[in-house]
UniProtKB/TrEMBL annotation:
Cofactor detail note: Binds 1 [4Fe-4S] cluster. The cluster is coordinated with 3 cysteines and an exchangeable S-adenosyl-L-methionine.
Gene: rlmN
Record: residues binding [4Fe-4S] cluster: 111, 115, 118
Organism the protein comes from: Paenibacillus swuensis
Keywords from the named record: 4Fe-4S, Cytoplasm, Disulfide bond, Iron, Iron-sulfur, Metal-binding, Methyltransferase, rRNA processing, S-adenosyl-L-methionine, Transferase, tRNA processing
Active site per UniProt: 91, 335
Stored InterPro entries: Aldolase_TIM, Methyltransferase_A, RlmN_N, RNA_MTrfase_RlmN, rRNA_lsu_MTrfase_RlmN/Cfr, rSAM, rSAM_sf
Protein name: Probable dual-specificity RNA methyltransferase RlmN
Swiss-Prot/TrEMBL cofactor(s): [4Fe-4S] cluster
Broad class of enzyme this protein falls into: transferase
Matching Pfam families: Radical_SAM (PF04055), RlmN_N (PF21016)
Major localisation: cytoplasm
Subcellular location: Cytoplasm
């Protein structure tokens, strides 16, 4: 299969141009056609010589995302189930905020991390996406927003999959997104979320970016985290916390800790007290997330009053904490739910 044109950073396209006896500036023109003019074919790149367009056609292809279904929430959230060229499917979400449009992207087909409250892991990991398949989700979202003269203002890498188990493709995706000659998304408007893949956390600390890092912890100790997140057996909680402290010391940037509150499991006052003690003196912020109902799981949502009580305990102990504003609750916007339903109906 020919590689996707979206897989290539500008620097890689410049190398390709050199290898194909084309001047380096042609790479910039190609990049402009792809990300600024957002064309769908090489033939549309009308300021390129016909011979160059033929080379591009012969050596590359565009990513095709087939829209299987689309759900629109009352709050403006739009969730897509896209089919890939190998018949796998992925999810992408456009979220409307007062400050702009945020896109939540997927990095893998399925997930092997195995969080017990998450639909993304149902069916396991099928494969990782290429950088271009991740890029295509943002481009597709931007094309939709073009109709109302809006733009993608922020990106969260919190869809299906573990981005730090697809590290190189995720980083190439990020380099393409932030490039000033492309979509030019501000680095501080991008957040990558990991379940705590420790070696990749250390690598990310050395990348010298302004991209935000979020860590899914969901428990204040090793034993409970291992029950909720089997990945904790590979990368124990103490090692994740050590990697977080290294990241903060190396970059000077704050980490967001994501904590999904599950009724009667990890949402008691003693859990809040223990979490505050673990995070004491760290440059961090806790994002409390009322767990989404997943039919295949038996977890219950934490009552509203208990969520606020958990937050108050953290703040009393000087830990900054907010409660995530729920979006798309009426359209099954939790990661993996659309894909799981599609897989079930396809298997029938």
């Amino acid at each position: 299969m020919k590689p996707f044109i979206y897989d290539f950073t500008l620097e890689q396209l410049q190398e390709w141009a050199k290898d194909n006896s084309e001047p380096a500036f042609r790479a910039g023109q190609i990049f402009d056609w792809i990300y600024v003019k957002r064309v769908n074919s090489f033939e549309d790149m009308t300021n390129l010589p016909k011979s160059l367009r033929e080379k591009l056609e012969a050596q590359f292809q565009f990513v095709t995302l087939n829209e299987i279904t689309r759900f629109e929430s009352k709050d403006g959230t739009v969730k897509f189930l896209f089919g890939l060229q190998d018949d796998h499917s992925i999810e992408t979400v456009i979220m409307k905020h007062s400050y702009g449009n945020s896109i939540c992207v997927t990095t893998q087909v399925g997930c092997r991390v195995g969080c017990t409250f998450c639909a993304s892991t149902l069916g396991g990991l099928k494969r990782s996406l290429t950088a271009g398949e991740i890029v295509a989700q943002v481009v597709q979202a931007q094309k939709i927003l073009d109709a109302t003269k809006e733009r993608v203002s922020s990106i969260v890498i919190m869809g299906i999959g573990e981005p730090f188990e697809n590290y190189d493709n995720t980083m190439n995706f990020l380099r393409i997104m932030i490039h000033e000659k492309g979509l030019n998304i501000g680095q501080r408007h991008i957040t990558v979320s990991t379940s705590g893949i420790v070696p990749s956390m250390y690598k990310f600390a050395e990348e010298n970016t302004q991209i935000n890092l979020a860590i899914s912890i969901h428990a204040p100790n090793d034993a409970l985290r291992s029950k909720l997140m089997p990945v904790n057996r590979r990368f124990p909680f103490v090692d994740v916390m050590e990697a977080c402290r290294y990241y903060i010391a190396k970059t000077g940037r704050r980490i967001t800790f994501e904590y999904a509150l599950i009724g009667g499991v990890n949402d008691r006052p003693e859990h809040a007290e223990e979490l505050a003690d673990v995070l004491k003196d760290m440059l961090c912020h806790v994002n409390l997330i009322p767990v989404n109902y997943v039919p295949e799981r038996n977890y219950e949502r934490t009552p509203r009053d208990d969520i606020f009580a958990f937050q108050r305990i953290l703040e009393r102990k000087k830990i900054n904490a907010t409660i995530r504003r729920e979006q798309g609750h009426d359209i099954a916007a939790a990661c993996g739910q659309l894909r799981a339903k599609h897989m079930e109906s396809s298997s029938r």
